[in-house]
C-alpha cells in the first residue's frame, strides 16, 4: 500500500506555522510528515531555518497518529552522530514510536557553520557510514565505545531509549549510495523517480520502505504557481553537484540568476489541475517507491492540504 506524506519545509515556514500545518495535515489524512533539517534556507526569499528537532518535539505533542521523520538530517559535521541518536530516541518516545530517522551526507550550506571545513564527496560518504554504525548501535543499545577514522564514542549510553528501535533510512542519489542504504539502514529516500535506485537497493538485500519526495506548487492558476515556485524553489534546478557545494544563500542567488519560472516548472508541477500533479506522483510509484512525500512550495499550505484531501488523496488511494 502506498503511504502519503507531507513535507514540512523548515526553510519556508517558522516553527509555529510548521506545527500548525502539520496538525492540519494529520486531519486531512496524511500518513506521515517529514521535516527538512537545515541551518540556513537555500535562498533569502524562503526566510526561515528553525531547529528541526525542537519542531519535532512540539509536533509529537500536537499530533496523535501521523508518522514523523527527518528528511533528511546530516550526522557528519554539524551534529555528532551520538547526539542524533539521542534526539531520535527522544522523539520516538515523545511520539509513541511514530518517528523515523532519515539520514544523508548533507550540504556545505548547513554543515560548514561548525567551522570544520567541507570534505570531498568520498570522505562525506565515509563519515556517513561511520555515523550510521554509531547511531544504529546506540539505538539498539549494543554499542557504547567506538573508534573510527572520523568519530569516537566513549562509554556512551542512551538512558531514555524506546523499546522498539526507530527505523533509520538513508537518502541516496546514486546506486552506490542506494546499496549502502540497503546494507546499513532500514530504508531508502530519493528525490528523483529513478527505478535504478530501487534496483540497487534491492540488489543489496534492501527490503524496507522506499521514500520519495515530490515537489509541486498548487495555486489557483498555473501562472501564479510558476511564479511562486520560482520565487521559493529555483535553487532546486541547480542539481545535487551544485546544491552540496555552495556555502550560502548568496551563492544560490548567483547560481540561479538566469533561471526562469518556466525552467522551474519543468521540475515542479504547477497549477490547480490534479491530473498534472498525479502524473508526476505516478512516475515515482511506477519506479517502485511506496512512501510518497509531497512538497507544496510556497505559502498556500492550507489550500494545498484541502486540495490533497479533496482530489489527490482519493485518486492515489484508489491506486
From TrEMBL:
The keyword Iron-sulfur does not apply. GO terms for molecular function: oxidoreductase activity, acting on paired donors, with incorporation or reduction of molecular oxygen. The keyword Oxidoreductase applies. Keywords: Oxidoreductase. It comes from the Bacteria. Pfam families: Bac_luciferase. Its EC number is 1.-.-.-. Residues 11-291 form the Luciferase-like domain. This is TIGR03557 family F420-dependent LLM class oxidoreductase. It comes from Dankookia rubra.
Amino acid at each position: 500500500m502506498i503511504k502519503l506524506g507531507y513535507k514540512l519545509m523548515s526553510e519556508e515556514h517558522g516553527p509555529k506555522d510548521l506545527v500548525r500545518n502539520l496538525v492540519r495535515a494529520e486531519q486531512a489524512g496524511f500518513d506521515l510528515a517529514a521535516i527538512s533539517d537545515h541551518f540556513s534556507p537555500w535562498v533569502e526569499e524562503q526566510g526561515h531555518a528553525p531547529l528541526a528537532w525542537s519542531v519535532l518535539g512540539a509536533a509529537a505533542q500536537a499530533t496523535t497518529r501521523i508518522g514523523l521523520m527527518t528528511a533528511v538530517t546530516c550526522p557528519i559535521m554539524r551534529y555528532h552522530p551520538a547526539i542524533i541518536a539521542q534526539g531520535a530516541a527522544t522523539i520516538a518516545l515523545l511520539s509513541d514510536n511514530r518517528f523515523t530517522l532519515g539520514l544523508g551526507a548533507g550540504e556545505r550550506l548547513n554543515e560548514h557553520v561548525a567551522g570544520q571545513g567541507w570534505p570531498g564527496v568520498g570522505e562525506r560518504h565515509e563519515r556517513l557510514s561511520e555515523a550510521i554504525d554509531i547511531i544504529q548501535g546506540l539505538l539498539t543499545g549494543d554499542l557504547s565505545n567506538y573508534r573510527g577514522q572520523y568519530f569516537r564514542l566513549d562509554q556512551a549510553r542512551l538512558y531514555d531509549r524506546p523499546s522498539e528501535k526507530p527505523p533509520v533510512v538513508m537518502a541516496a542519489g546514486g546506486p552506490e549510495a542506494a546499496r549502502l542504504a540497503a546494507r546499513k539502514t532500514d530504508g531508502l529516500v530519493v528525490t528523483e523517480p529513478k527505478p535504478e535506485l530501487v534496483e540497487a537497493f534491492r540488489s543489496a538485500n534492501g527490503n524496507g520502505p522506499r521514500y520519495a519526495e515530490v515537489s509541486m506548487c498548487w495555486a489557483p492558476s498555473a501562472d501564479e504557481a510558476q511564479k511562486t515556485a520560482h520565487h521559493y524553489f529555483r535553487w532546486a534546478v541547480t542539481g545535487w553537484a551544485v546544491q552540496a557545494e555552495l556555502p550560502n544563500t548568496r551563492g544560490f542567488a548567483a547560481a540561479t540568476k538566469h533561471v526562469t519560472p518556466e525552467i522551474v516548472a519543468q521540475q515542479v508541477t504547477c497549477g490547480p489541475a490534479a491530473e498534472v500533479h498525479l502524473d508526476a506522483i505516478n512516475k515515482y510509484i511506477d519506479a517502485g517507491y511506496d512512501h510518497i512525500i509531497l512538497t507544496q512550495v510556497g505559502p498556500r499550505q492550507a489550500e494545498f492540504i484541502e486540495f490533497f484531501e479533496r482530489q489527490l488523496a482519493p485518486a492515489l488511494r484508489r491506486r
